[in-house]
Design a protein that fits this description.
The chain is an alpha/beta fold. It is built from 13 helices and ten strands. The chain has one domain (about 5-305): Aldolase class I (TIM Barrel, Alpha-Beta Barrel). Helices cover about 50% and strands about 15% of the residues. Helix 6 (about 110-125) links the parallel strand 4 (about 100) and strand 5. Helix 11 (about 255-270) packs antiparallel against helix 12. It starts with a helix and ends in a 5-residue tail after the last helix. Zinc ion binds near residues 176, 209 and 252. Zinc ion binds near residues 176, 209, 210 and 252.
Length: about 325
């Protein structure tokens, strides 16, 4: 059985979600690996087109293999926001367990045709496919969408039937990046739409993109030490975790790792102005990655948010 299938079956049984962390360098990879070993928790490691450009797919593959060899739990390698059949095919040919084909910006019929083409190739190679219907706003690497278009539950059923896609990214009010919502507004997820989608396609695991909570303490630290991350607002994990009860089985995290690393390094430069060995501050950044990863795994996969209490802020 495909590794992603195994993982989603497990998550379904436990009524939890698997965290998908975006990776593009060794420090993030090692930081996450430490968290997975500490908590004995599985995860998805995903790479975007931007990560492939920055790191190189050969380096990423080697990093993933090394992480896997050093982890006692299941790791799944996934392509995030594949934008063409060719990119998905390349990842499938190079041993990815799972790919996302994002045709959400296309008209419905074209999204169906593109997704089905990827599904046909992927399934012939025992690879999982995530599709997307509806548009999730915000900016993430090559993805730049001004306004959300919520996923239509009836269309979602038609999309899954016509494409045979394995899991579906839905748009219910999350957003990519750190600038998710207007300051002063109350960000809200459309649980009513999510419930309708889950009822329409109960056997399809749902995916939340743009699900970083924009952890306030890191935004504060960045701004305190010379950064200018203004107006960054997210949704707390406690709120996002409610989506798990309505069929969300994969929760994507990228921005929170970026914010945490930046906060750590900015503060380090301020506190230790004489240090110029990158290993000194990257080691601290790695520890912060582990802390953020553990926090997400506790909320979404282990679901022991009781024991977290009123944490962090
Ligand atoms: Zn995304």
């Amino acid at each position: 059985m495909n590794k992603m299938q195994t993982l989603f079956n497990w998550a379904q049984q436990k009524n939890c979600a698997i965290v998908a962390f975006n990776i593009s360098n060794m420090e993030v990879m090692k930081g996450i690996t430490a968290a997975l070993n500490n908590l004995q928790c599985p995860a998805i490691l995903q790479v975007s087109a931007g990560a492939r450009r920055y790191t190189g797919s050969d380096y990423l593959r080697a990093l993933f293999n090394t992480a896997q060899a050093n982890t006692q739990t299941t790791l799944v390698l996934h392509l995030d926001h594949g934008d063409s059949f060719e990119l998905c095919k390349d990842c499938i040919d190079h041993g990815f367990d799972s790919v996302m084909i994002d045709g959400s910006h296309l008209p419905f019929a074209e999204n169906v045709a593109l997704t089905k083409k990827v599904v046909d190739y992927a399934h012939a190679h025992d690879v999982w496919v995530e599709g997307e219907l509806g548009e999730i706003c915000g900016i993430e690497d090559a993805v730049n969408v001004a306004h959300s278009k919520y996923t239509d539950p009836a269309k979602a059923r038609e999309f899954v039937q016509k494409t045979g896609v394995d899991s579906l990214a839905v748009s219910i009010g999350t957003a990519h990046g750190a600038y998710k919502y207007a300051v002063g507004s109350t960000p809200a997820l459309r649980y009513d739409i999510l419930k309708q989608i889950h009822a329409a396609i109960p056997d399809t695991p749902l995916v939340l993109h743009g699900a970083s909570s924009v952890i306030p303490e890191y935004v504060t630290t960045i701004n305190q030490f010379g950064g200018q991350i203004k107006d960054a607002v997210g949704i707390h994990e406690r709120e996002l975790a409610r989506a798990i009860d309505d069929g969300v089985r994969k929760i994507n995290i990228d921005s929170d790792l970026r914010l945490a690393i930046t906060a750590t390094i900015r503060q380090y430069f301020h506190d230790q102005p004489a240090v110029f060995d990158p290993r000194s501050y990257l080691k601290e950044a790695m520890k912060t990655v582990t802390a953020v990863a553990e926090r997400k795994l506790k909320y979404y996969t282990l679901r022991n948010d009781q024991s977290l209490g009123q944490d962090h802020h």
